[in-house]
Structure prediction request, 83 residues.
Amino acid sequence: MSTQTLPEVDVRPDGTDQSGDDTPKMFHYVRKAKIAESAVMGTHVVALCGEVFPVTRSPKPGSPVCPDCKKIYENLPPGGDGD
Ligand SMILES: [Zn+2]
Prediction:
């Protein structure tokens, strides 16, 4: 078992869950501000990779991380956007 410690980047993993779709569920990295906005506005969120999906469900633990999000996330500067 590994513990994934996220640095101070203003994102969190979130997941797609498209019922009826056989696409594997994955974690995408989504900016927390986007998630909050989505919760309030009822809009979809945009993951780092550009994937757009509603924040309604969470992927199961152990779901794979979107490789595109992971690559982008790893290249983010620490501390997020800053000012
Ligand atoms: Zn992604």
The chain has a mean pLDDT of 72. The chain has two helices and four strands.
